[in-house]
Design brief:
Length: 422
């Protein structure tokens, strides 16, 4: 009788306990599964929350922990992406190295500068990809002594590339070295301009010195008594006047060049025709050509359209070109000016049958102060700035200027001015 009551109760209790145990072990199994996925880096798994669950608190804590880790990971990813975007867009090359000398990060600009193929570098030591001793020694010094270093580096690539590199150690709060950051700044352009500027100053000084020495010499000769010898005195004064004109021309050309190179000076573009510009230039040189017995042929296509130009400056272009033709072509020579349309450009040719220019000088002729034949130019007295002024002005009109010549067979300068300036 008793057993008929107790046994079913016992049975029910056992069943209830088994169910509870089963649920409990299922929860523990679930906790294990979630934690395993965390350990595999997946923080998106969550525990199911059941209100009657005795492990409910644990499940809630696990979910909150996962959420927090996920949030922080996201923050770190965002920061990393931001940093990578900044590094990728920097004009400087950036290199990050661990305290153990391994490469941690190379910016795309650095890869370019040192011609590193992108996958080549990961896990390598910095000295495996940088072949420059100064850079490597400086990085080692920064790591060893934990100090900031700045160095100037020249690489021969085959062309020369100049860098300044700033190497900075990065330490944690307790002063332990974490990494070293090297920032490479390409200063090649700057160096080029610095060199040009030095050369320019040297050239100007030289150009000023020659006439000044001559003026000084003749003035001293006159002072020493030559002033009383009328015929000699007049000849010396002529030389002084000529050298003074030369100085004046030089200063004038330098002023034109510097105004063209200065960013503030605006071109005064108006719609006008090249024909009238050429006519006024021809008028300026007519007398000299007649005196030298040179013949001039002008062949301008009719109805050339007006284009946007700074007429005064364009006059300077054709004056410089015609001046050269007249100056370098011997007496009795022939000069021709042609103008027409070619490929949406107005093309103007200034052709002479003078001594021409050798092929090695042709490529340098538009450089400042360049004169092909120094002895011949001594007589003609030019500054060597005329063609650089021409090039500057034509380029400011979005045009081009070319030269074709064979030594002994004349020269032909062609100016192309666009019909439609952008
Ligand atoms: N038509 C030409 N025939 C032969 N050589 C020329 C001709 N035009 C230019 N050259 C050469 O190119 C050099 C540079 O010309 P550029 O006009 O720049 O200087 P320049 O005439 O010597 O001096 P500047 O024009 O300042 O008076 C000349 O010195 C000359 O050697
Ligand atoms: Mg000239």
């Amino acid at each position: 009788m008793l057993s008929s009551i107790i046994l079913p109760i016992l049975f029910i209790i056992i069943i209830a306990l088994s169910i509870k145990c089963y649920r409990h072990s299922r929860r523990i199994h679930e906790i294990r599964r979630v934690i395993r996925s965390f350990s595999q880096g997946d923080f998106s798994s969550r525990m199911v929350l059941a209100p009657s669950d005795r492990l409910g608190d644990v499940a809630l804590n696990i979910n909150e922990l996962a959420q927090e880790i996920q949030r922080r990971l996201q923050e770190m990813t965002n920061e990393k992406e931001k940093l990578e975007a900044i590094l990728s867009n920097m004009a400087e090359g950036v290199l990050v190295i661990s305290a153990q000398e391994r490469l941690l990060h190379l910016s795309p600009r650095f890869l370019d500068m040192f011609e590193v193929r992108s996958q080549d570098w990961s896990k390598k030591y910095y000295w495996e990809i940088i072949a420059n001793q100064t850079i490597n020694e400086s990085i080692r010094e920064a790591i060893t002594h934990k100090k900031v270093l700045r160095r100037n580096i020249t690489l021969v690539h085959p062309q020369e590339i100049f860098f300044t590199v700033l190497i900075s150690p990065v330490m944690d709060a307790s002063g332990v070295l974490m990494s070293v950051v090297a920032v490479f700044h390409d200063v090649t352009e700057f160096k080029k301009y610095e060199r040009l500027r030095t050369e320019f100053v040297a050239n100007v000084s030289h150009e000023l010195k020659t006439p000044l020495t001559s003026i000084k010499g003749f003035v001293e000769t006159l002072q020493a008594g030559a002033i009383d010898d009328k015929t000699h005195a007049l000849r010396f004064l002529d030389i002084i006047a000529k050298q003074t004109r030369r100085l004046e021309d030089l200063v004038q050309d330098l002023l034109i060049l510097s105004s063209l190179e200065s960013k503030d000076v605006k071109m005064n573009f108006i719609q006008s025709g090249v024909a009238s510009v050429i006519s006024s230039v021809v008028l300026m040189k007519k007398k000299q050509m007649e005196e030298q017995g040179q013949t001039l042929e002008v062949d301008i296509a009719p109805d050339l359209p007006f284009i946007l130009m700074d007429t005064q400056r364009m006059e300077q272009v054709f004056l410089n070109l015609l001046d050269n033709a007249v100056k370098f072509t011997p007496a009795g020579g022939k000069i021709k000016i042609k103008a027409g349309i070619e490929k949406r450009h107005i093309r103007v040719d200034i052709i002479d049958n003078g001594p021409g220019i050798s092929s090695e000088n042709l490529s340098r002729i538009f450089e400042r102060f360049f004169r092909a034949d120094k002895s011949r130019n001594q007589e003609t007295g030019g500054t060597g700035l005329g063609l650089s002024i021409v090039k500057h002005i034509v380029e400011a009109h979005q045009g081009t200027v070319n030269v074709e010549s064979t030594l002994g067979r004349g020269a032909s300068f062609s100016v192309y001015l666009p019909l439609d300036m952008i």
